[in-house]
Amino acid sequence: LVDTMRRLRRRGDIAPEVSIIRDIREREFKIFTDAGRVYRPLFIVDDDPESETKGELVLQKEHIHKLMNSEYDEYDDDPSASHYTWSSLVNDGVVEYVDAEEEETIMIAMTPEDLEASKSSLSETQQKSLQMEEQDLDPAKRIKPTYVSSTHTFTHCEIHPSMILGVAASIIPFPDHNQ
């Protein structure tokens, strides 16, 4: 039922602002439609077991090309031309809006590189040795976690790591510091 409802939301049959949650502990299926909930966009990771692209972003280069072509076509005078916009990405199931409660039930990769690392067949010791080499090169670089393929199945990916706080909060200088 939850997967069907999410598919309907990703196809655009249900409004993208609707939050769909399966609470395993309480054995509840929750649907939130109330106004005032804070939600943020995330890229969707293909989690279909039969898919060839399982574990990869649904966003492909063709989506980016459509967006770029639509931006250039914006200056054309043809009103009947269909334009590919952010809403098109949402309706195509490439981007999904997630609120705080739904965020607790999904696995979010910080970057697309983290998705690649989780899919790779490197052992944990090899990943740790690679991280140690990277740390020697740049002490300010982000520490990447090690992944165990049996426990990490990502469902979403951040658009950019600074988007964790949302667009409005990320423009505040030093949001992680007290005044």
Automatic annotation (TrEMBL):
Gene name as annotated: RPB2
InterPro entries: DNA-dir_RNA_pol_su2, RNA_pol_Rpb2_4, RNA_pol_Rpb2_5
Family the UniProt entry places it in: Belongs to the RNA polymerase beta chain family.
UniProt keyword annotation of Nucleotidyltransferase present: yes
Biased composition (Polar residues): 118-132
Documented EC number(s): 2.7.7.6
Annotated keywords: DNA-directed RNA polymerase, Nucleotidyltransferase, Transcription, Transferase
Gene Ontology biological-process annotations: DNA-templated transcription
Any single Gene Ontology cellular-component annotation: DNA-directed RNA polymerase complex
GO molecular function: DNA binding; DNA-directed RNA polymerase activity; ribonucleoside binding
Gene source species: Candidozyma auris
Region (Disordered): 114-135
RNA polymerase Rpb2 domain span: 1-46, 86-161
Pfam families for this protein: RNA_pol_Rpb2_4 (PF04566), RNA_pol_Rpb2_5 (PF04567)
Residues spanning the signal sequence: none
Protein name in the entry: DNA-directed RNA polymerase
Top enzyme class: transferase
The keyword Transcription belongs to this UniProt entry's keyword annotation: yes
Organism ancestry: Eukaryota, Fungi, Dikarya, Ascomycota, Saccharomycotina
